[in-house]
Each structure stands twice: as C-alpha cells, then as structure tokens.
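User: I'm writing a short methods note and want a consistent example. For YggT family protein, I'll paste the sequence; you return only the structure tokens, no commentary, since I'll be parsing the reply automatically.
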Amino acid sequence: MILGTFIEAVAQILSMIINIYVWIVIIAALVSWVRPDPYNPIVQILYKLTEPLYVKIRSLIPTIIGGIDLTPLIVILVLQFINLFFIKLLFSLARSL
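Assistant:
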C-alpha cells in the first residue's frame, strides 16, 4: 500500500516535469522565430534548458529538413511517448501493489 502510493506520487511528479519541459520546448521554438536578444535572461534560460538535448538529438539523426529544424518536434514526440507509456506503466504498477 505505501509502496504503491509512493510509486504513484513519483509517476505524477515525473508526468508534471515532462509536461513543463514540453511547454519549455514549445516556448523556446516560438521565441526562436523572432530572433530574440541573446543577452535576455529568459532567452538564455530557454537556451540552456533546451540546447543540450537538441545537440544530442542532432548528433544522432539529421533534423533539418528544407531549412526547418525539426528537433523540437522530435523532443516533444519522445517526451509524450515517455509520458504515455512509461508513466502509465508506473501508475499501473502502483495500482497492482
């Protein structure tokens, strides 16, 4: 009972973190369209939060197609897969305990 509740709480927190990061990726993608001031603190935070993951994905697969960078879309799809599959798996594990 206690272990199941703990696992469910962890799954809920992970789901919230994933959703927050998805919004960060969306905001960073939208901001990149308007050529923001690179010295703006918000732009720097968005860059520091998204660029390390973008670099890893770009090193694995080519993500620029027709001049459009699809890395944010790939990140969102992977995060949604994790949220729908692994988090749901944690919830079902918690309910079975």
